[in-house]
Write a structure and sequence with these properties.
Helix content is 37%, strand content 19%. The two termini are 32 Å apart. The structure holds N-oxalylglycine (OGA), calcium ion and fe (ii) ion (FE2). Fe (ii) ion (FE2) binds next to loops. The site of fe (ii) ion has 3 residues, from loops.
Length: 423
């Protein structure tokens, strides 16, 4: 039974997608592999790797609305970056209060007050806070990547995926390796996007076109992740916690102020505030689209509503598997890539026509599932909400774009400091 959980992003829940045996089988495959911590903390030596430029705070650049004051949000935007840390606006406030920088206590800083901030101290304070409190870390889990050729079960799963998603078989065959993730108590993954915003980098999934072997280490200065669909499987029942939260799914009214400052992304503290929360259940699959379609019907911008993450495990452990289906945002490259794979005898039955099916597929599934959704009383308010706030989607998009530009800058800074080798 497929249940439509949200329309923005199109988000579906499929119970019993896997049998209990299959779930255990996948866990066992993973247990035989070498595990890796999902996001390792930067070493202490990392501090010295931060350049002076990344430490410096400049009043003109920080006062983005040029009202002559720096407020906490502006300071949050300008903070020195720390890899794998979730710094929220509350942390910024705490730091300012602790050091009594805001002498008149009006929650905004004059040039004079701002001038007293020691950016290096700010960085180190945030760093120590992150070290001391694992809720401040973006992700705490262990993971392994498993090649689809390594087990027959994956062939079977792919068949199910084709019939579920109605995507061309080739797209499903070109799915990423399966990522199997294990969380212990306290483990989580703060809200994030699985796919990256379109910029001048190329999609990593078609890197073979540039002569980059798929076994080579990822170069994130040249490539970005383009994950059209996320399929996620729950491989066990979690005793307590470990929900998958979508803070802004279907929230047609959310606004910049909820997005900035990372507050809603902090699932250790705001899991219950998320608009959509999916409970883990052994064998259940969750599927959603990370991109909207562009005017040509091809994979377009990041779907801003697809922000999601895993809440803290309160009791027990949690096992999931991610099965991402990447598609190049550049249609020509996707077609070229599929031809190339075909030439390498991986596919025999590829036609250009099939790549055009993406549009049809996306629209059909949304329509189809929307039908099922209309009948579900749980969601009946959404349609009304949606018509009342017809215009708010545009506004929201802008605030997300701001946010994403900001995220990108932070990431660039971090990439400069530390070349990333793991997703
Ligand atoms: C992920 C993810 C959510 C969860 O691994 O990318 O979003 O519920 N996981 O574990
Ligand atoms: Ca200002
Ligand atoms: Fe994710």
């Amino acid at each position: 039974m497929i249940k439509t959980v949200a329309v923005h992003p199109p988000l579906f829940e499929i119970e019993h997608f896997l049998t209990d045996n299959e779930c255990e089988h996948i866990q066992n495959i993973a247990k035989r592999r070498r595990w890796k911590q999902s996001h390792t903390l930067p070493e202490d030596g990392f501090r010295s790797g931060v350049s002076e430029g990344d430490h410096q705070l400049n009043f003109q650049n920080t006062d983005t609305n040029t009202d002559g004051f720096v407020d906490f949000i502006e300071l949050w935007y300008a903070r020195p970056p720390i890899q794998n840390a979730l710094i929220t606006i509350d942390d910024i406030k705490e730091f300012i209060q602790l050091n009594e920088y805001d002498t008149d206590g009006d929650d905004k800083l004059t040039v004079g007050e701002f001038g007293k901030i020691d950016a290096k101290l700010m960085y180190e304070w945030m760093y120590d806070k992150m070290k001391a409190d694992k809720r401040k870390q973006t992700r705490i889990s262990d993971q392994v990547w498993v090649d689809h050729n390594s087990d027959e079960l994956f062939d079977e799963l792919k068949k199910r995926l084709v019939s579920l998603t109605r995507l061309p078989k080739q797209i499903v065959d070109l799915g990423e390796k399966m990522q199997i993730v294990h969380y212990d108590v306290g483990g989580h993954y703060h809200a994030h996007y699985d796919s990256e915003v379109i910029d001048n980098k190329k999609c990593i999934n078609t890197r073979l076109l540039d002569g980059v072997e798929e076994s080579a280490k990822f170069d994130f200065n040249k490539y970005r992740i383009c994950r059209y669909v996320t399929m996620m499987y729950y491989l066990n029942d979690v005793e307590e916690g470990g929900e998958t939260a979508f803070p802004v799914a279907d929230n047609v009214t959310f606004h910049r102020k909820y997005m900035a400052g990372n507050t809603i992304a902090d699932l250790s503290n705001h899991c219950k505030d998320a608009n959509v929360v999916v409970k883990p259940k052994k064998g259940k699959a969750v599927m959603w689209y990370n991109h909207v379609l562009n005017k040509d019907g091809w994979i377009g911008d990041n779907d801003v509503y697809s922000l999601h993450g895993g809440c803290d495990i309160k009791r027990g452990v949690k096992w999931i598997a991610n099965h991402w289906l990447p598609v190049d945002t550049d249609k020509e490259r996707q077609i070229q890539y599929m031809k190339m794979k075909q030439q390498r005898n991986i596919f025999n039955d590829l036609t250009n026509k099939e790549t055009n099916m993406l549009r049809l597929h996306h629209q059909n599934t949304i329509q189809h599932y929307q039908e099922t959704r209309r009948h579900s009383s749980q969601n009946k308010n959404f349609q009304d909400e949606q018509s009342r706030h017809k215009n708010s989607l545009g506004v929201n998009k802008e605030s997300f774009e701001d946010q994403q530009k900001h995220d990108k800058l932070q990431k660039q800074k971090i990439n400069r400091i530390n070349s990333k080798d793991e997703l």
